[in-house]
Amino acid sequence: MASTTEAPPRKQHKVPQRPGDRIFSGISTGSGALILVVLAGVAVFLITEAWPALYAPASSIPGGQGLAVYIWPLLFGTLISAVLALLIAVPLAVAIALFITYYAPRSLAKVLGYIIDLLAAVPSIIFGLWGMNVLAPLTVDPASWLSENLGFIPFFAGPASSTGRTMFVVIIVLAVMVLPIITAVVREAFVQTPSLHEEAALALGSTRWEMIRMAALPFGRSSIVGASMLGLGRALGETMAVAMILSVSGGVSFNLISSENPPTIAANIALQFPESTGIALNTLIASGLVLFAITLIVNMAARAVINRRKEFSGAN
Questions:
Q1: Which residues lie within the region annotated Disordered (predicted)?
Q2: Which residue, 72, 231, 265, 266, could crosslink 178 as a Cys pair with Cβ 3.0–4.6 Å?
Q3: 3-state SS, residue 49
């Protein structure tokens, strides 16, 4: 019986990294860590500066009714303006992205792509001037019609503002501001849709819309969610455009066309910060902490949705 000898295991040698690889790896790791450090630094600053307002007596908070009562109208105005703007912008952005990708001639699609990218770079103060001087006067008559004919809906209860500087105009301006960002991201997702999926749907006799519904939209769903949350983040934190347009009353109201408009957190901080000192300044920072927490939660929720779709690729 022949004896068998087992070959000794080979030693695995680590492939030495080149200096360029080590430098790039170190820079990448350091950059990722720097983001976490900056985020933690911002959180620590906000918590430290807001701490006196969290435990201050209600009478010392601006308004004299406590921190929660002070922040609640700001939070309400921030959420209602951003969410309604997103409800307007997302369907339009998806429709524009689909038109550029699948329907427009190549020359027109290229021009429209450039225009979308340029709109995303327009400063917010320009949108604020446009909303205040152009859009607000144009909405006075439509707002009066909405109040007279659809006043049973809380959003259009009226009476309509005579100046047009209302939450309704703010929502439209915010929707226009976030539209280019969402469109650009969604368009890139549709461009990367696997051609095998599109060709398979068309080979089965699908119309162009059926191909989009079965191939492009499922593939770009996570990108649509991510782009929407990116636009929501900008709408939540928008400052100058809202501060220039909105005629603030300080109350909580679903009425979008009257002169009684709830403020937003970012606009209130911009307007009140130069003249605030002491506990009033701490109160403003506390409202900023609330906005920071909301933005963080929104981004985490979006990341969770995107991670659920990360297994969807062109190979399956």
A1: 1-21
A2: 231
A3: helix
DSSP string, 281-304: HHHHHHHHHHHHHHHHHHHHHHHH
Count of positions (residues) in the chain: 316
Q: Look up residue 309 and give its two tokens.
A: 């779709």
The torsion angle over the Cα atoms of residues 31, 33, 37 and 38, rounded to 10 degrees, is: 30
Q: Is residue 314 part of a domain?
A: no
On whether the CB atoms of residues 124 and 238 are closer than 8 A, the answer is yes
In a domain, 23, yes or no: no
- Which CATH number fits the domain that encloses residue 134? 1.10.3720.10
Single pTM value for the model? 0.83
Burial (CB < 10 A; 0-12, 13-18, 19+), residue 8, is exposed
Look at residue 19 and tell me if it is in a domain.
Answer: no
Q: Both tokens of residue 10?
A: 């080979």
**Is residue 160 left, alpha or beta, with left meaning phi > 0 and alpha meaning psi from -120 to 50?**
beta
Burial 83-101 (b: 16+ CB within 10 A, else e): ebbbebbbeebbebbbebb
> Is residue 18 situated within a structural domain?
no
**Which residue type does 172 have?**
I
- Find the farthest-apart pair of alpha carbons in the chain and give their distance in angstroms, rounded: 106
